[in-house]
């Protein structure tokens, strides 16, 4: 893959059996919204993803902090292999079951304390996902410093099984045993992903584990925008640039 004049990386010459594609969703495929439920899926994205999945022989997966059920609702009627809740949920086959990993019981017990901390700011939203607790403050940016400090203290007191992810305008408590990197590893050990060169596209610190996982096996990590916790130059300026790039790939796949 080579850089083009537009500043984003050009697609491979052909979509053959050598590639596997892993896609973060919010901030990568979709533009960030003030609230998670307010995101929109552009009309052209679903058919582009469908063509890409077919061109890759099914070796394309969504890897997101959202639940798999949420991903299905967003992209319906398209159903893809998916990892939800940062790898705590895995669906290898679009027609298969969602498998959930074990979650440390300490995590759900922290929800009341997290809600109490967030209640200080009316526009801070707490989202209990099951395998993670997300605290969104995009509509209350003034809460960032104090809220982050309080959540760090809470996680430290909870012990080593829980960690705090400090993403873009969100803080997320999760079981540290499940990451986007572990999800990539599970996919790469299963057909049709096995033996391919993986590409992971993401925009946030929550994607760093996915980047490391693909690079560890000779794959390619592609960052969207700039994040201080991701020490790499961006491959794309924003989600719109990612969608444009995927559209190019989809057209090549259709012509192949």
Protein model, in words:
- Removes the phosphate from trehalose 6-phosphate to produce free trehalose.
- Its cofactor is Mg(2+).
- Keywords: Hydrolase, Magnesium, Metal-binding.
- The chain is an alpha/beta fold.
- The chain has two domains: 19-101 and 178-255, Rossmann fold (3-Layer(aba) Sandwich); 106-175, Trehalose-6-phosphate phosphatase related protein, domain 2 (Alpha-Beta Plaits).
- 32% of the residues lie in helices and 19% in strands.
- It has a seven-stranded mixed beta sheet, with helices on both faces.
- Strand 3 and strand 4 form a beta hairpin.
- Helix 1 crosses helix 8 (239-255) and helix 4 runs antiparallel to helix 5 (144-158).
- 43% of the residues are buried.
- The mean pLDDT is 88.
Specify the oligomeric state: single chain
Helix content: 25-40%
Mean pLDDT: 88
Q: Spell out the CATH superfamily of the largest domain.
A: HAD superfamily/HAD-like
Span from first to last CA? 18 Å
Unreliable sequence segments: none
**Number of helix segments?**
8
Q: Looking at CATH, which topology of the largest domain would you report?
A: Rossmann fold
- Tally the beta strands: 11
Number of domains: 2
Largest sheet: 7 strands, mixed
The H-and-E topology, N to C, reads as: EHEHEEEHHEEHEEHEHEH
Strand content: 15-25%
Strand line-up of the largest beta sheet: 5-4-3-2-1-10-11
CATH class (first level) name of the largest domain: Alpha Beta
Radius of gyration: 18 Å
- Content-based structural category: alpha/beta
- Which second-level CATH architecture of the largest domain applies? 3-Layer(aba) Sandwich
3D shape: globular
């Amino acid at each position: 893959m080579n850089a083009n004049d537009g500043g984003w990386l050009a697609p491979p010459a052909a979509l053959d059996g050598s590639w596997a594609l892993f896609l973060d969703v919010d901030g990568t495929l979709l533009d960030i919204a003030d609230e998670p439920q307010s995101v929109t899926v552009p009309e052209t994205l679903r058919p582009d993803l469908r063509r890409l999945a077919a061109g890759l022989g099914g070796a394309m997966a969504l890897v997101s902090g959202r639940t798999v059920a949420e991903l299905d609702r967003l992209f319906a009627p398209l159903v893809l292999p998916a990892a939800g809740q940062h790898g705590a949920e895995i669906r290898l086959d679009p027609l298969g079951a969602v498998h959930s990993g074990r979650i440390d019981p300490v995590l759900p017990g922290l929800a009341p304390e997290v809600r109490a901390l967030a209640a200080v700011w009316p526009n801070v939203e707490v989202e209990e996902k099951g395998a993670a607790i997300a605290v969104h403050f995009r509509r209350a940016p003034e809460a960032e410093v104090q809220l982050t400090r309080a959540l760090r203290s809470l996680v430290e007191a909870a012990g080593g099984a829980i960690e705090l992810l400090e993403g873009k305008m969100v803080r997320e408590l999760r079981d540290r045993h499940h990451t986007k990197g572990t999800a990539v590893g599970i996919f790469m050990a299963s057909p049709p992903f096995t033996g391919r060169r993986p590409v992971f596209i993401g925009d946030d610190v929550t994607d760093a584990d996915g980047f490391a996982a693909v690079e560890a096996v000779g794959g390619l990590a592609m960052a969207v925008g700039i994040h201080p916790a991701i020490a790499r130059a961006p491959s794309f300026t924003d989600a719109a640039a990612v969608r444009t790039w995927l559209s190019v790939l989809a057209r090549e796949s259709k012509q192949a």
